Amino acid sequence: MTYKLLTIAGSDPSGGAGIQADLKTFSALGCYGMAVPTALTAQSTTGVTGVHAVPAEFVTEQLETLLADVRVDAVKIGMLANADIVAAVADAVEEYELPNVVVDPVMVAQSGDRLLAAEAVQALRSRLLPLAHIVTPNLPETADLLDEPEVHDLAAMADQATRLLELGPQRALVKGGHLSGQSSTDLLAVPGAAPDSLSAERVATRNTHGTGCTLSSAIASLLPQRPTVHEAVRDAKDYLTQALRRADELNVGRGRGPVQH
Ligand code: PLP
C-alpha cells in the first residue's frame, strides 16, 4: 500500500526546504507526494530575498479541489506566511477531518528571514495547534508559541514541551538542535507522562538548510507506517541523520546547502 501524503507549505526554489524538501522526503520514504503551496519565496542557499504569499482564498481553492477528490493518509503543514492562510488551512483540516496532521510551526528561516508574520503566531496557536496530531517546534519557536523566553537546558525544555500540550496538540516534539553538545536531543511530550527523549549524533556539516522541513515531512510519512508516534519520530530522526551524513556529497550553492535524501 502506497500512502498518500500532502504538504501544505512554502516553495523554496533552491530545493532544500519547503514543499520541494517535503516531496523528496515523501518519495524517499515510499509515499506518494502532493503539494499545496502557500507562498512562493525567492530563495537560494544564502537566504530569502522575497516572499509572495498565495491569496488565502486560493489556498482554500487548492485544498478543496484536491481533497474533494483524494483521501490523504497524512499531512505536513509548514510555512503559512500570514493569519489568513493559517485560518484557510485550519478550516480545511476541520472540514475534511484530515488524519495524521504534523504542524511544523515555521516562523523564521535559519538565515534569519521571517516566514510567518509576527501577528499570525496567535492564529497558529489558537486555530492550528488544537488540530495537530504532533507539533514540531525548535526552541525559538517553542518560546514564541508559549510567549516565554527561549530556554537553554533540557529540564526547562521538558517543562516547555509539556506545557505546549495545553495549547491543544496531541503530541509536541521540541527539537533541541539549538542546545550545545555532541548529540542533538529532542523531547516528545505525551499527555500524562514525562516527555520521551530522542537523541541522535550531531552531524558536522554546514549543509543544514531544510532540516526542519525534512524531519516534519519524514514524521508525516512514517505516522501511517509505524505502530506508535514514538517509532515514527525515532525513524524520522534516523532518516534526517542519514540525510545529514550524506549532505556533503552534494555541492549546491555557496551558502548552507541542502541535505541529501
Ligand atoms: N523556505 C521555506 C519555504 C521553508 O518552509 C523553510 C522552513 O521551514 C525555510 C525556507 C527555512 O529553512 P531553513 O530554516 O532550514 O533554512
From TrEMBL:
Biological function: Catalyzes the phosphorylation of hydroxymethylpyrimidine phosphate (HMP-P) to HMP-PP, and of HMP to HMP-P.
Question: What protein does this entry describe?
Answer: Bifunctional hydroxymethylpyrimidine kinase/phosphomethylpyrimidine kinase
What Enzyme Commission number(s) does the record list for this chain? Answer: 2.7.1.49, 2.7.4.7
Task: Please indicate if the UniProt record lists Kinase as a keyword.
Answer: yes
**InterPro entries tied to this protein:** HMP/HMP-P_kinase_dom, PM/HMP-P_kinase-1, Ribokinase-like
Domain called Pyridoxamine kinase/Phosphomethylpyrimidine kinase: residue spans: 12-259
Pathway per its UniProt entry is:
Cofactor biosynthesis; thiamine diphosphate biosynthesis; 4-amino-2-methyl-5-diphosphomethylpyrimidine from 5-amino-1-(5-phospho-D-ribosyl)imidazole: step 3/3
- Which chain regions cross the lipid bilayer? none
* Alphabetized UniProt keyword annotations: Kinase, Thiamine biosynthesis, Transferase
Keyword Transferase in record: yes
Major enzyme class: transferase
Against Gene3D superfamilies, the record matches this protein to: 3.40.1190.20
Question: One GO molecular-function annotation for this sequence?
Answer: phosphomethylpyrimidine kinase activity
Checking PANTHER family in the record gives: HYDROXYMETHYLPYRIMIDINE_PHOSPHOMETHYLPYRIMIDINE KINASE THI20-RELATED, PHOSPHOMETHYLPYRIMIDINE KINASE
Q: Which reaction does it catalyse?
A: 4-amino-5-hydroxymethyl-2-methylpyrimidine + ATP = 4-amino-2-methyl-5-(phosphooxymethyl)pyrimidine + ADP + H(+); 4-amino-2-methyl-5-(phosphooxymethyl)pyrimidine + ATP = 4-amino-2-methyl-5-(diphosphooxymethyl)pyrimidine + ADP
